[in-house]
# Entry
Amino acid sequence: MSARQLGFGGQVRAVWRKEILDALRDRRSLLSALLYPILMPLMIAVVFGAVAQLEGSERPLETPIVGRDRAPNLVAWLEERGVVVLDPPADPDAAVRDGEVDLVLVIDEDYGEQFRSVEPAVVRIVHDSSRTASLSSIRRTRNLLRAYSSEVALLRLLARGVSPGVMQAVRVDDLDLATPAQTAARFFSMLPMLLILGSFVGGLNVAIDTTAGERERQSLEPLLVNPVSRTALTAGKWLTTCVFSLASAWLTLAAFLVMLPFVPLEQLGMQLSLDGPQLLLMAAAFAPMALFASSLQMFVATFARSFKEAQTYVNLLIFVPMIPGMVAQVYPLQPAGWMMLVPALSHQLLLIDVMGGEPVAAANLAVSAVATAAFGCLFFALTSRMLRQERIVFGRG
Amino acid sequence: MIEVRNLERRFGAVVAVDGVSFSAADGCITGLLGPNGAGKTTTLRTLYGLLRPDAGAVAVDGIDAVADPLGVQRRIGVLPDAHGLYVRLTVREHLRYVGELHGLDTATIAASIDSLVARLDMGEIIDRRVEGFSTGERMKVAVGRALVHDPPNLLLDEPTRGLDVMSTRAMRDLIRQLRADGKCVLFSSHVMQEVSALCDEIVIVARGRAVARGTPDELCRRAGEEDLEDAFVRIIGSDEGLQ
# Structure
């Protein structure tokens, strides 16, 4: 009858339309594309918020002191520096152990005597170092006490006509060359990893469902009896997976930006400024990434013997692009030219530059995009070639 | 018009099809009859281009299935051995997909679906998602998929498998209707009654060979039996005796 021969583009379009419809109705595919991009940045924002609270110096230091009458000068000095002195709990040890207070300062009974006779006067900090939440209070208290001790010692030396320099053999000056933006970028090196993960998680279920799932449902044979080239078939499925992968990466980025204002960056001594062009650059860098992640996942899922096996393989695959990021956390990578050829690794490096406010070499960007897209096309070609093999179509039992 | 000549196909050491030859004419119902594992499905799969023959030739309307599988696929409608559906799509979406893959325009697809709804009695299910369909309903979708592009040749692999009496009768009526439309219908079955009730021509396949062919009456006469089932057993049995 009137069946005209369908061109390659028309075939791809027909497959794409069906697969998009199918995937949009698949709760699992939607979840993996939508849930991750919103949950992960949210989790990071919460963690950052908690870290900021631990580090927060704005919070007044509330310190219960036992025997405050024995050291009125010290207590007055502390109060001058913003310490809120509280009445001590009945049982300081128990209170610290139960986490009711961060620490208790105990002024020794002989403090006054020791102070007057110029012996080291004893002040005890009762604390629990296994409690992360109280570490900051302990550190601040200790620093304050140290400062008070040197101040008094200094006055005593001056009173005896000795230069205070005698007490200080070495003076340590800190000169931190890292700009706040760089520190922030290092801390935010999580973002590239999040986005790379987003690309992999987003299309994961679609990649499996359109390949291993198609065979497991026994719908592959009826599909292949239609006059459509295997290349067009694979391309339609690939494009569908790419849409989910890219949407997931971009959603992750968007969710991150939405949550950024709620993270107290300044409190952590960091600043991160991303302007429009930088954001577009980051977003664009993930288009080739989606091509790569999708075809790699489809290749692995097509190779698998069953849906379950495909799930196992593709889920394990997620860890592969995380390796460069993890290595970079422990062992800072020296960026080298060849790294731009490696998908995920090049994205990690490029994005750290972008976030650090450093200019990104156009050549690097181009090499990364071309190399990543080329790997994507390679796995696409391998997948559509596999689909021509009888043992893949009918399973290998 | 379907032609199979000296078709051979092995899977490793197993010879699935060992020199099968037959032809199926337009306006005729041809049945491939044989026990399980006789090579029926393998023969059909080489015809619709999913398996490559080791030797011999398969052709549909003069088009070689090895040289031009897409050309063959444009001229056939297939109910394959495996006919899984997409649980999240409606019946209409299934049929539209196949229509689109065959390059039909929207209006042609819509008209074709309307006529299939009437022929297969799918009025109630046409816009339902296929999840939870009964075997009969699923078979209707699968058959609809084979017919939506109105192909001149039909390859049906065990079209009544799993169907109840009513559905089986409906399927027989449909196959007769296709013959009346002048189609070339080739179907496989291991159910004797099925084949004897429908076929103009029967090809008996056993252990990868076409051991006999003819009308039901001719086969009975040749075997000296009155009943086709007895003729079938005798034909296969005598073949065994020859080896």
About this structure: Chain B touches chain A at residues 48-52, 70-71, 73-74, 76, 78, 80-89, 93, 97-98, 100-105, 108, 142, 145, 149-150 (CB under 8 Å).
